[in-house]
Design brief:
Elements (H helix, E strand, L loop, with lengths): L1 H23 L5 H15 L5 H13 L4 H44 L3 H36 L1
Length: about 150
């Protein structure tokens, strides 16, 4: 009995960390999270088979609300029941909540300081331009040396 309980805690912890990781490093919306959940839970852990995951995606799409949360709900329920729902929802919501909190903190710090915001924008625009210029220059230089060697 203790081994089964220990395995259940281990699985719940892996479920939480996997969902937290997917949510924290995913950019592009809920459909991206669904594909990463498929990779993690179907391909890597083999906790769910592929046809079942397709059914879960259909359920997540048809239910009202964000598809990332709906996908976490159906996967969490399938793997660990009601407790799995709570764990996956929490792990899916924590990263965006933290990111928005940090952004709002810095927004309040810079809101009234127009010159700081302007300097920040100019500096980062210039740094992106410089990075692109250096990368493109190096690519052109490499391509030109290949052309003129022949």
């Amino acid at each position: 009995m203790k081994d089964k309980l220990k395995n259940n805690h281990n699985m719940l912890f892996r479920l939480f960390l996997s969902t937290l990781y997917i949510s924290a490093f995913t950019f592009g919306g809920g459909y991206v999270i669904v594909s990463l959940m498929k990779k993690k839970f179907v391909d890597d852990y083999h906790w769910i088979d592929e046809n079942e995951m397709l059914d879960f995606v259909a359920i997540a799409q048809s239910a009202p609300g964000p598809i990332a949360i709906n996908g976490a709900i159906v996967v969490g329920y399938r793997l660990a029941g009601i407790l799995g729902i709570g764990i996956t929802i929490l792990a899916t919501v924590i990263p965006p909540f933290v990111i928005i909190s940090v952004i709002s903190f810095f927004y309040n710090a810079f809101r009234d300081n127009f010159i700081s915001i302007f300097n920040f924008i100019i500096f980062h625009s210039f740094s992106f331009f410089l990075k692109d210029y250096i990368i493109n220059f190096n690519i052109c230089k490499i391509n030109l040396t290949k052309i003129f060697k022949n």
